[in-house]
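pinging the channel bc i need a second pair of eyes. not urgent but kinda urgent?? the chain im working w is below, pasted from the shared doc
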Amino acid sequence: MVGQAPAADTTIRQRLWLSRRALFGHLALVVWLPGCIAATWWQVGIARAGDSLGWIYSVMWPGFAIFGTVLWWHIVHDDPATRARRRQVLTQAAAQAEQERAHRDRVIARAEAEDPELASYNAYLASLSRGGQAKRWSTP
């Protein structure tokens, strides 16, 4: 039985490659790649007829084909569990950023309590921020 995949691995592969999302990706790729090849061929013909801009487009369409292939790969291989883990990491990062922001605000409040000049300057900056007035070099 050398070279055979376990049954669980086969089921995961089938779910990965034959899911509704993956089938849509396969269909889109089957339409996209020949379209890009046809557009490339068309632009090469235009470029050979004398329009030098056609050379740029004849290079651009294979780039679109590569982009479509990379997008297809991500559509097929990005599973819901991975997205959930990514969402959880982003939520944790946002919570950590909020804690850091709160800590920074406490440090600033302590510094303002010790220095009234700093407090007045920060109040001035806050009033400018609330004013909504466009900043100009001539505005003091």
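so The radius of gyration is 29 Å. and Residues 99 and 105 are 10 Å apart (CA to CA). — does that match what u expected or am i reading it wrong
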